[in-house]
Amino acid sequence: MKRITILGSSGSIGTQTLDAISLLKGMVKVDGLAVGKNIKLLKHQIKKFKPKAVSVSSALEVVKLKKWCKTNNINVKVYSGREGLIKLATISSISLVVAAVVGAAGLDSTIAAIRAKKDIAIANKETLVMAGDYIMKLASKLNVKVLPVDSEHSAIFQCCNVWEKSKIKKIILTASGGPFYKYVGDLSKITVSQALNHPTWKMGKKITVDSATLMNKGLEAIEASVLFGIPIEKVEIVIHPQSIVHSMVEYLDGSVIAQLSNPDMTLPIQYALTYPERICSKIKSLNLCEIGKLEFYKPDFGKFPCLSLAYFSAKKGYTMPAVMNAANEVCVDAFLSGNIKFTDIAKIVKKAIVSHKILKNKSVDTFIKADAWSRDYVSNLIKKGI
C-alpha cells in the first residue's frame, strides 16, 4: 500500500485524486490532507479517508476543528498555515506528496517534501515556474521522483523513453484553446462568467481564467521545459479543440509519439499514484471512429499575449518566471473580483516583467523575494487604476 499526503485536497485536482483513490481499492492510503478554507469538505474527507493529520489555513479554524474531532471521537492531528503544509509534506509514513495547492503557496511544502525524500506528484505548475531548476536539481540529488499530474505533462512523460531523452527534437504541447479561441468580439468586454465557461475541462477558477487567457499554456510550456530538461524553444504549442491528443514528443528521426485518451483527469492522476504500474481505470475507452476528426491549429500569440510573456520570461530565466507568475496570480484575482478587465491581465503582467531587475542568485529566498516584489508592484498598479 502506498501512503500519501494531498496538499490542496479541496480543490479540483485534490477532490479528483481522492475519487481516484476510492477506485483503487486499498492500493493507496491517505495519511495527510490540507485545505484552505473549505472546512466543511475537509470534515467529510476526514470521516471517509481517516488521515493521520490535516492542515487548514487559519489557526482559528484549528480550534474549531479539534473540537469537532473530539466531539466525533476522531483521532487526527490538526495544523495550520505554512508550517502545517510542511508538517503534512514530511509525515514519516508517506512516500508520495500530491502537490495541488494553487499558486506560489505550494513552493515551501514541495521543497520540504523533496528534502524529506518524498516523491512528488506535481499538480502545482506555479511552483515549477517559480523555481523549477532549483527543484529539479534538488530532486535529482536526493533521488526523488517528480511525477506530472497535468494531463499534458503526463502525456509527455508517457511518450518519453528515458534512454532516448537526448534524442528529443521537440515537445508538442496541445491546448484546447479555451473559451475564446474562435471569439471575434472585443476581449476587453469579457465577463468573469464567460471566462469561467471552459469548453472541455472542469477546473478551479484561477486555472480556468488562465486557460481563457492561454497563460495556463504558457505556464505549462515552462513546466514542460523544466520537467523534461528541454529548452523552452523546443516546446511548441498547438491548439487541439477535441482535447484527445494530450501532447506529443518528436524525436530526431522524425518519429512523433502521442498519448491519446478521452479528456478525463482520472487517467493522469491515477498514473501518478500507481507509477510505474498501470491498472484499469473508469474512463471511457477511446473510439476514434466516433470522434471522426482531430484538428490542430497554430495559436494566435497576438490575440493571446500571455503566451509571448511566458516564453519571454522563460528565456530570461532566473527570477523572471517567478515575477511573471506572481503578477498573473494577482491580476487573475483582481479580474475575478471585478477590479480589472480581462485584457488588463496581460497588460499588467507585461508592466511587471519590464520593470523587474533580474536577480541571478538561484536560492529559494531569492525566488520568494522576487515573488513578493511582483505582488506588491502589481497590487499598487491596480490600486492606482493603471
Keywords:
11 strands; Rossmann fold; 386 residues; seven-stranded parallel β-sheet; 16 helices; alpha/beta
> Which architecture of the domain at 2-148 does the CATH hierarchy give at level 2?
3-Layer(aba) Sandwich
Classify the helix fraction into a percent range: 40-55%
Side-by-side strand order of the widest sheet:
4-3-2-1-5-6-7
Number of helices: 16
Give, in order, the helices and strands.
EHEHEHEHEHEHEHEHHHEEEHHHHHH
- Give the overall pLDDT as a whole number: 94
Q: What share of residues are in beta strands?
A: 5-15%
**Largest beta-sheet details:** 7 strands, parallel
> Looking at CATH, which topology of the domain at 2-148 would you report?
Rossmann fold
Cα end-to-end separation: 54 Å
> Can you identify the CATH superfamily of the domain at 2-148?
NAD(P)-binding Rossmann-like Domain
Name of the CATH first level of the domain at 2-148 = Alpha Beta
Low-confidence regions: none
* Bulk shape: globular
Radius of gyration: 20 Å
How does the helix and strand content classify structurally?
alpha/beta
Count of β-strands: 11
How would you sum up this structure, described in words?
This protein is about 45% helix and about 15% strand. It is of the alpha/beta class and about 375 residues long. It has a domain at about 1-150: Rossmann fold. The strands form two sheets. A seven-stranded parallel β-sheet has the order 4-3-2-1-5-6-7, sandwiched between helices. A four-stranded mixed β-sheet has the order 9-8-10-11, with helices on one face. β3, α3 (about 60-70) and β4 form a beta-alpha-beta unit. α4 (about 80-90) runs parallel beside α5 (about 105-115). The model has no long low-confidence stretch (mean pLDDT about 95).
